[in-house]
């Protein structure tokens, strides 16, 4: 091992990690950096003696032992607090223990999760910094520009004493900004700002600097690193404002969208993914054909306005415009779609005199007749459609073949490759999706029938809970079988081979074509440690039929029949999905081969399918689309979206002002979700959390990294804009708000809230 003293650090020592490297460079540039050294591995006896001699020269002052992992404190990731720090070391035995523990801290769970999330690799290389401690009167953090927005103007935060309570969020600090007038600080803030700006000029990048002022009013620089997650943050607010402006320009404020159909898209879909699915919901393609099979009108003409289609992007995410949907079922009718406020904001049709035109007046009798006819068919012919759907599935399975990766297409000529791509895409949106989408429609109708039969037996909310329980414990799907085989494969290498051969066309986030399939991930597809799964209560003895028999109603047999029909539909839908994702994976593999030949990388997925077919590749446009999509990940909306509601939340003009809680914006973005209050992160059962979890806590520290990864947004009582919580939230593109006093007591599990990280505002939705 080698000992590197700060005074010896030069520009070719970047392998020592961001913290140690920058401290050495600043020390040699004449900045007031406390003396220190860097270790690249655990020291032996001789090296420890050399360290003790250095310590003696520094009058055996208290030491800080801090991590300096490779990649830490870089312009991409801060690793803020992920690895260990030990302060106020006074004894030789304490120092030896602190060095050993600091080196081993790279294996901490939170640190490994952080590296896996950002770098795709849980392994890392650790160096350790030893530095003379400052006994601070004040300590704090200085940012040369606003890390939340990227706007010009420095920010500083400070507390009395050690800075650990500042960055951990345990204390709310004094806050200073360049744009404030008449700044009064209990220390020389002009010297702090001047020093911070000189550090910025040294590294020629906007910086985040930790500092301390001792009891003799001497300023010391303790650390400096580039501001992470800065690029694009000023764009987030602009994207929100531009999107609201676009929606208001092209849609009525009563417009309602439903994202439930595409709930499995994790985040904004890529251009390729969205363009294919959008085509499925256009004139005379899969969705329209499914409607016509059921007796509805279908989509018989193109929707001329390019800003209007049945499948649309709302903040770059996929939503069905259900305000436009009714005419595709029955034709022009004097009704419009609104949200049923009394029943979990479910959409419903209401009479609207404004929709009563001469055309709708003339066609109303025909519309009513069509409604009755379709309603009768849906009541009497569902079994016929199910049999036909099963027959089509068997035929589809017989002709379906599996491709494991892009290598299959390497021998194709360019023309053959594009022709195959065009055929696969066309077959998918035109034919393959027809029966699955028909099943989705039948499932929705049957679910509503079941709820209608149960109405009056219990409250609407309890009925929904009951049906959810039935679907959770009363179904046996091919996806469940796949999951069981996956669990078995985790500990058996031979079973992994068979699993990949059978299910390799599927994978995490499989509806997004930009995501790899299991066959591509190979060994990486299998976790080393199986995540715990909640056990089903009485799963062996429980049956839905027993639940139905226990109901106090004369409609038991009808309810049971309707449930069995719904069960058959849901299980059949999963079988279709299993098959459907095979040709869908082919589209990905062909796209990857086209990308390889044209040196496009993953930007192939940020071209529409028509652009690929026409060979119109534009890396600048594709890159811009990808960047905007990444920024939109900070925006999370409810399943059912109203234009009027989004605008209200963003403006804060909620009729009931008591529903708004103002705090401090830590990280930009807009997110809607369900609260989970956490007191102790070690006891949090994240497996039971919903996908749109809003994490609420008094404060957080790096040990909460795993919970951040499971959350859509963060709300905390304590912590400034420069705390660990704020830094990591910004790096992970999670909207975050602080200074919501007693939020861990005020908010309860299950509360629905909007988190506006742009304006530092929480809006209670329930």
Written overview of the protein:
This protein is of the alpha+beta class and 766 residues long. Helices cover 42% and strands 16% of the residues. It is built from 26 helices and 25 strands. Strands 16, 18, 19, 20, 21, 22, 23, 24 and 25 form a nine-stranded mixed sheet that branches. Strands 1-2-5-3-4 form a five-stranded antiparallel sheet, with helices on both faces. About 3% of the residues have low confidence.
Task: Describe how the helices and strands are arranged.
Elements lengths: L2 E3 L12 H11 L7 E4 L5 H13 L5 E5 L17 E5 L2 H13 L4 H11 L8 E5 L3 E10 L6 E9 L3 H4 L6 E4 L11 H15 L3 E8 L4 E8 L6 H18 L5 E3 L12 H10 L5 H8 L17 E4 L2 E5 L4 H5 L4 E6 L5 E6 L6 H23 L1 H18 L14 H19 L1 H21 L5 H14 L4 H12 L3 H11 L14 H4 L22 H6 L6 H43 L10 H5 L5 H14 L2 E2 L3 E3 H9 L8 E3 L1 E4 L2 E8 L15 E5 L7 H4 L4 E4 L7 H8 L4 E3 L4 H4 L5 E5 L4 E4 L2
Parallel strand pairs: 16-20, 20-21, 21-22, 22-23
Antiparallel strand pairs: 1-2, 2-5, 3-4, 3-5, 6-7, 6-9, 7-8, 9-10, 11-13, 11-17, 12-13, 14-15, 18-25, 19-23, 20-24, 24-25
């Amino acid at each position: 091992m080698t000992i590197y003293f700060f005074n010896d650090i030069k520009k070719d020592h970047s392998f020592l990690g961001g913290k140690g490297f920058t401290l050495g460079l600043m020390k040699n540039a004449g900045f007031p950096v406390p003396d220190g050294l860097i270790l690249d591995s655990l020291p032996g006896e001789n090296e420890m003696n050399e360290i003790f001699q250095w310590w003696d020269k520094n009058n055996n002052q208290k030491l800080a032992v801090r991590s300096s992992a490779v990649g830490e404190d870089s312009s991409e990731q801060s690793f803020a607090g992920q690895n260990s720090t030990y302060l106020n070391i006074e004894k030789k035995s304490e120092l030896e223990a602190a060095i050993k523990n600091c080196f081993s801290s790279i294996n901490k769970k939170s640190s490994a999760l952080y590296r896996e999330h950002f770098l795709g690799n849980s392994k890392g290389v650790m160096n350790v910094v030893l530095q003379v401690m400052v006994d601070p009167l004040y300590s704090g953090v200085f940012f040369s520009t606003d890390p939340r927005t990227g706007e010009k103007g420095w920010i500083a935060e400070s507390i009395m004493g050690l800075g650990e309570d500042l960055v951990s969020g345990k204390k709310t600090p004094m806050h200073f900004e360049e744009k404030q007038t008449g700044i009064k600080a209990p220390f020389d803030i002009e010297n702090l700002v001047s020093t911070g700006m000189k550090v910025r000029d040294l590294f020629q990048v906007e910086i985040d600097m930790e500092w301390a002022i001792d009891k003799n009013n001497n300023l010391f620089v303790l650390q400096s690193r580039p501001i992470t997650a800065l690029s694009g943050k000023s764009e987030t607010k602009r994207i929100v404002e531009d999107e609201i402006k676009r929606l208001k320009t092209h849609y009525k404020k009563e417009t309602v969208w439903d994202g439930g159909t595409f709930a499995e898209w994790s985040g904004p879909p890529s251009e390729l993914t969205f363009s294919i699915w959008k085509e499925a919901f256009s004139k005379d393609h899969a969705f329209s054909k499914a409607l016509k099979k059921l007796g509805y009108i279908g989509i018989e003409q193109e929707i001329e306005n390019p800003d209007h289609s049945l499948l649309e992007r709302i903040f770059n995410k996929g939503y069905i415009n259900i305000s436009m949907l009714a005419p595709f079922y029955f034709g022009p009718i004097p009704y419009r779609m609104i949200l049923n406020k009394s029943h979990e904001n479910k959409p419903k049709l209401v009479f609207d005199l404004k929709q009563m035109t001469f055309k709708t007046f003339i066609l109303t009798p025909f519309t009513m007749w069509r409604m009755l006819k379709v309603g009768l068919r849906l009541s009497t012919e569902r079994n016929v459609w199910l049999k036909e759907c099963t027959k089509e599935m068997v035929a589809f399975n017989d002709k379906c073949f599996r491709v494991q990766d892009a290598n299959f297409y390497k021998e194709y000529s360019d023309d053959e490759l594009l022709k195959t791509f065009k055929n696969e895409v066309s077959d998918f949106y035109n034919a393959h999706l027809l029966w699955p989408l028909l099943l989705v429609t039948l499932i929705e109708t049957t679910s509503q029938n079941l709820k209608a039969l149960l109405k009056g037996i219990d409250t609407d909310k309890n009925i929904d809970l009951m049906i959810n329980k039935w679907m959770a414990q009363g179904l046996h799907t091919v996806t469940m079988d796949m999951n069981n085989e996956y669990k078995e494969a985790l500990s058996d290498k031979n079973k992994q081979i068979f699993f990949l051969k059978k299910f390799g066309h599927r994978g995490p986030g499989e509806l997004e074509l930009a995501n790899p399939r299991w066959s591509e991930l190979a060994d990486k597809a299998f976790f080393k440690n199986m995540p715990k799964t909640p056990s089903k209560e009485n799963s062996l003895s429980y049956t839905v039929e027993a639940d139905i028999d226990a109901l106090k109603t004369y409609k038991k047999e009808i309810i049971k029949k309707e449930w069995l029909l719904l069960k058959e539909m849901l299980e059949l839908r999963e079988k279709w999905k299993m098959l459907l994702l095979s040709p869908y994976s082919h589209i990905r593999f062909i796209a990857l081969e086209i990308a390889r030949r044209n040196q496009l990388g993953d930007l192939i997925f940020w071209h529409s399918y028509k652009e690929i077919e026409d060979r119109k590749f534009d890396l600048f446009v594709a890159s811009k689309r990808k960047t905007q999509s990444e920024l939109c990940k900070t925006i999370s909306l409810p399943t059912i979206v109203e234009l009027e509601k989004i605008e209200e939340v963003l403006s804060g003009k909620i009729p009931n002002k008591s529903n708004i809680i103002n705090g401090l914006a830590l990280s930009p973005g807009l997110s809607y979700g369900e609260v989970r209050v956490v007191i102790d992160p070690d006891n949090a059962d994240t497996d039971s959390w919903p996908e749109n979890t809003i994490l609420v806590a008094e404060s957080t520290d790096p040990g909460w990294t795993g919970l951040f990864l499971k959350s859509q947004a963060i709300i905390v009582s304590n912590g400034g804009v420069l705390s660990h919580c704020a830094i990591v939230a910004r790096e992970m593109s999670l909207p975050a708000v602080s200074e919501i006093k007693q939020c861990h007591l005020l908010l309860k599990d299950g509360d629905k809230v909007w988190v506006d990280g742009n304006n530092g505002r929480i809006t209670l939705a329930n």
